[in-house]
Amino acid sequence: MEYVRAFVVGGLICAAVQFLMDRTKLMPGRIxxxxxxxxxxxxxxxxxxxxxxxxxxxxxxxxxxxxxTLWKGVKEGIEQDGALGLFTGGLTAGAAxxxxxLIFGYLASFFFRPKMKG
Length: 118
Fold this sequence. Notes:
Elements: H1 2-23, H2 28-44, H3 48-55, H4 57-60, H5 63-81, H6 85-111
């Protein structure tokens, strides 16, 4: 049942994004920022964590989950380092995921021939 819940929630998030791409004039970059900010806002008001625990990977893997991760990092950073944590907390919390994306993207470029869209 856990897999079904994750699949349905992740699918609903993807469907909402597809709706925004098809029915609005928002560019993909702005939609991505909207997802990250939504995750941070929902995390700050205490809604995202219980939802994420219920939905599992369906809620934690998309960009909304990344926004929540950034929020948690900023919150912890402020608690530990004060105002400096506002700048360092999100970077610390998101460093592993960001580094993995960069490293695996770089490694993939060795196996495939990346080209600029033209």
